Amino acid sequence: MQIQQLRYVVKAAEKKNFSAAAKELYISQPSLSQQILKLEQELEVPLFIRHSKSVTLTDAGEQFVLSAQRIINNIDQLTDLMHKYSCLQSGTFRVGMLWIASYLKLPQILTDFRQQYPDIAYELTIDGSKALLEMLQSHTINAAFLISNEKELQRNEELYYQKLMDDYYVAVVDRNHPLTKKSILKMEDFQEHTIIMPSKDSAFRLELELLFAKHYVTPRVVCETSQSDIGMQLAEDGLGIYFSSNSIAHALKTDNHVIIPLKEDLHRTIFYVTLKDLLDYPVTKRFTAFMKNYSFKTKSNK
Questions:
Q1: What is the distance between the alpha carbons of residues 18 and 201, in angstroms, rounded to a whole number?
Q2: Which residues are 173's β-sheet partners?
Q3: Which of 103, 123, 147, 280 is geometrically suited to a Cys-Cys bond with 251, CB 3.0 to 4.6 A?
Q4: How far apart are CA 160 and CA 147, in angstroms?
């Protein structure tokens, strides 16, 4: 039994004539008659009583048409719903965002995309890069904006990624700190000063520790945090030197602290990442194409 056969029977019952039904269905009358007869043979029961110039339904035919019409209506509704998904008139896009997304203006990307496709619903998950990548790989989210490096992403053949921007690190100190006399800081400059270190689960923490070790610097750690607003406030209150990305440092800039560039090239890269097997999913496909042409600008004060 095929859906097209159901449509043939319903139309023939409506027109009470095979020729008239075939004309509206844009097929030949012999083809229509053959398909209905084939269906009757499969069901082992006649659906129509054939007259010389018309047809009428049998008892079985009447019940068949009632059920067939419900099936056709459901299929038409389902087809229409799937069409809305394919045209982005329906559906949900699940996106992972970094804790620092607002400082990097990442939500603006979704705002701009939504202007083109206003019927799409969004579910945002806010977390760190490692957690977001795990959620992406478990298909909990469709795409993510995260911090990583290209070598790590290349090693995972399941991933599609696009580099968005590089952001470099700076030192943040209170306005009365002795290091404000310097225009640029070397790692050796931190030897006798109190440091606010990133938390141990931060990728930047290891990078910073390796640099301190390379330059024989033993940091005096007052606390550990990767919460930018807390770290900036502690530095502003004179409790230690905080290392922040340039974008966040300037987003949280006040008159009570000073931002000083580092001689070491410490930077992090923000990527848009999704799974290759999701690139055929309509909303992910459209959003990825949108990202390829997106003119993304972030503050730079270097």
A1: 74
A2: 258
A3: 103
A4: 14
Condensed to tens digits (0 to 9), the pLDDT of residues 259-276 reads 999 999 888 899 999 999
- Residue located via tokens 């027109």: 15
Phi, psi of 203 (to 5 degrees): -65, -30
Tell me how long the chain is. Answer: 302
pLDDT at 283 over 60: yes
For range 135-154, the mean pLDDT: 93
Question: Which band of pLDDT confidence, cut at 50, 70 and 90, is reported for residue 57?
Answer: very high
Q: Which two tokens stand for residue 91?
A: 């559906």
Burial of 13 (0-12, 13-18, 19+ CB in 10 A): buried
Residues in a beta bridge with 96: 125, 144
In contact, 7 and 15? CB cutoff 8 Å:
no
Distances from the Cα of 272 to the Cαs of 100, 118, 136, 150, 207, in angstroms? Answer: 14, 21, 12, 11, 22
Quick one: angle between helices 3-15 and 18-25, nearest 10? 130
Cβ pair 235, 130 in contact under 8 A: no
36 is written with which tokens? 């209905």
Return the closest-CA partner of residue 300 out of 264, 263, 267: 267
> What is the rounded CA–CA span in Å between residue 34 and residue 6?
13
Kindly state the tokens that stand for 2. Answer: 């095929």
Sign of the alpha-carbon torsion through 231, 191, 200, 140? positive
Task: Give 289-295's long-range contacts (Cβ < 8 A, gap of 24+).
Answer: 290/113, 290/116, 291/109, 291/162, 292/162, 294/109, 294/112
Nearest CA-CA partner of 172 in 265, 224, 245, 98: 245
Six-digit token string for 114:
């939504």
Q: Has residue 300 got a pLDDT over 70?
A: no
